Amino acid sequence: MTSRVEHTDVGAYALGLLEEDDRQAFEAHLLGCAPCRSELSDLSGMASVLSGIGPVEEYDVPSPEPVIDLLQRKKAADRRTRRGTFVIGMAAAVTLVAGGLTVGTQLNGEAAPQIAQGHANHLGPAEQFYADGVPIEGKGVDGVTGGLVVESKAWGTHAALKLAGVKGPLECELVSVGKSGERRVMTGWSVPPAGYGVPGSPDPLYMHGGSATPLKDIDHFEVVTTTGKKLLTVNV
Fold first, then answer.
1. How far apart are CA 233 and CA 220, in angstroms?
2. Which conformational region is residue 190 in: left (phi greater than 0), alpha (psi within -120 to 50 degrees), or beta?
3. Alpha carbons 214 and 212: distance in angstroms, whole number
4. Of 187, 226, 218, which is closest to residue 205 (Cα–Cα)?
5. What is the pLDDT of residues 97-133, one digit of tens each?
6. How is the beta sheet containing 218-225 ordered, strand by strand?
7. Beta strand 230-235 with 170-178: parallel, antiparallel or unpaired?
8. Which of 1, 48, 103, 142 has the maximal Cβ count within 10 Å?
9. Please, is 146 exposed, middle or buried when counting C-beta atoms within 10 Å of its C-beta (0-12, 13-18, 19+)?
């Protein structure tokens, strides 16, 4: 083994069968090879048992040839195993690459509409809540449209907003207005220049919001800009 160090020489090292040069080379190899150290630990018990067996007068002393032959056959089997593992790994890699090429073809071909449809059917929490509820349509200005789905909570009022027909850049807020006139900001956001629910950016905006005011005490909701312009009013 003087020309190279092999992982399959762990058994020979454990039984002290390596020549001095090979032993030193393998010990250097052990410093950087965790699998060999682990296997050596497993074999150390066997080595100690074998080393404790001495000659018995009633029996012939076993020849070392069977043990050496066993190690040689183990090394050959380990080499075949490594080659088989390499072939299997290469086959798996080829399969993955082929699968990737197939997926790429599907993404660029007939399967693309189906994938796009699946993505479209994946709704966000606010959009899902709005879709599952009973929307209250609001009254907008300058082409703004939208509505709210509201529910009463122990902590106040939860609402999901749908807003369309608005262009940016803007900063907006959803506000609950109580019957007493008290105003509470439920959530805020910014509208990018492209806007929401307009030509070139057709998707509406969906937002969650919460107010500490109980639903029974709310008169209406407003969507307003931070400059004070009212875009949408939803009466309850």
1. 7
2. beta
3. 6
4. 187
5. 344 433 333 333 343 344 344 444 578 999 999 999 9
6. 139-140, 230-235, 218-225, 170-178, 183-191
7. unpaired
8. 1
9. buried
